[in-house]
Design goal:
Beta-Lactamase, alpha+beta, PAS-like_dom_sf
Amino acid sequence: MAKTTLPGVLRSLSKQTDGAIFAVLFAVIVALAAINWLAVRTTVQDNVDARFDLRTSAATDKLAIAMAAYRDAVHIASDRLAATSPMDAPTWSSYVRSMRLAERLPGLATFGGCEREGNTIKRQVAYSVGEEVALGPDGAITLPTQATQATSSQTSDRVFTRADSATGRSYLIFLADTRQPAICAYAIADVDRFVHDAVGPLIHDLTLTISLMDDAGQPTPIFDSLSPRAPAEPRPPAEYRVQTSVPYANKPALSLTFTASHEFAALRGAGVADWVLAFSVLMCAGTLLAWALTINVRRRARALREQEALDKRRSESRLFSVIESVREAIITIDEHQRIQIFNPTAESIFRCSAMEVIGEPLSRFIPERFRDAHYHHIARFGQTGVSERLMGRGRPLWGLRADGEEFPMEASISQSTDAAGKFYTVILRDVTEQRQIANALQTSRNELEKLTARLRDVREDEKLRIARELHDDLGQRLTALKMDAVMLKMSLGEHSSASADINRIEQSIDGMITAVRQMAADLRPTMLDDLGLGPAIEWFAQDFARRYGVAVDVAGARRLPSIPPALSTALFRIVQEALNNVAKHARATAVTIEMSCDRDIRLRISDNGRGLPPTRPKPDSLGLISMRERARLLGGTLDVRSPADGGTVVTTVIPLPASAPTEASPG
């Protein structure tokens, strides 16, 4: 016989207790689920019944209001017809529009006046919303005898239906009291539009059939919300049904039958009870599953916590390895801006060890004049919720080494939050060397610009000197040689055998004189120094037109003020280079040079040539570089573009020196 130990008994009792508790809990949940299902289903069913009754009552009331509106309208119109008979069509249309009957009467198709001859009523005048709907064949109808034999306590107002076989549409015709001896009003309503305008939103998920009651109480079907429907298609089974009637002139006129299928209940929430039951079943299954997994989950949770702690230690180790190895300084501070992490690069930049600064305020490494602003900057950054951004945009940042030396730096800041609170990490770089290199580069660039300007001035001076020597020395010598040739020719006589040779010598000398003058003008036109920029440009334009056969138009040159020599030279050279480009590349037939001056001198050179190539094969050609450099050295700009309609436009804007006049000199 096996021995039963106390621990085994306790474990057995524990299992039995757990099973009993689980069984009781399961039974309670099932019972509560069944009770909830019954309660919810009963409540939902009551709500669906009430909603169906409310909707059908509201639809009946709205149709009654619409019928009453038609009756009032034809009565008022009959009085108007009697007062102003006969009434022409424009006056009638104006009356109908002023009464806004097309808006007030749902489904209105035609509203008119008719005259009576015995039992026959004929159209007299009518207004139609769309195409006019006739009273009957030939615009007339014949009333039954009883329709005109109402007692004094009754009214002979009538409503009857007419079907249009051509369109398949049904109409309601409303007549005012037909006992009036001569004239009355009538209204014709499209049945489909009448119903949908009046109660369309109320019956979108219901089925409505309408019959018109005649004088004998016999119904005539006029509307079915399920039409058109295939002949063999059955009507949906009716779960809900109610019949009501709408009076007209104190007599039943419309018989209404409302029905709804089981889908109405489903749409209105009858399925909630089934969902409650399903949810309860799921709760039972979930309880069983939860009970079975509770202990396993606890064990796994403990193992997971241990694994997370191990992973965290490993992650921190890897993070610190990265922080230790990066070339940028990394400093992490807490929400009180006290240092928590200080990597070796930061130790090197700030010249102190991490052991000295952990727990110290970050302001220790910020110059005193920036400390307050820096503290508030970090506080505002913490409130933005932005994870990362650069620091010091638009202005330099300065750090403070442990020995008191200030240095420029670049920095970015990020923020993160964990269980211990909010932390900010600053990644910074010492840019002292970069600043020195940038300053040296700028100094070199400035010196190069000065050298370039000086070389340009020397070149212009040398061109001026050579041009003057060509003009004054070589030109005079050639002129003297020409005079000697003329005198020699005169002394020998025209009939001398050497006369032809002397003529050739004269022609050669003339060609040399012309070439020397052209060379001197190309180097430096004397009128640029003697007469100024405007006349020099006009002369050069005329010479260019003569040499290349291109029409050149100059505008504004004579209105230029006195311009400093350096500025005049630069603008003349820009014009010279631009026209040379036209001659070499543009294939133009016309060039326009426009000049103006206020605070700046504006020069615009345009041609009708082929423009810049689409791929711009030489965007940095020496000619363009020279033109841009001349403008830049004088503080101006030069833009070259090709308009959509072709050609090339060179635009130069150079500011006038402060001492230069801004108006043209008189004369």
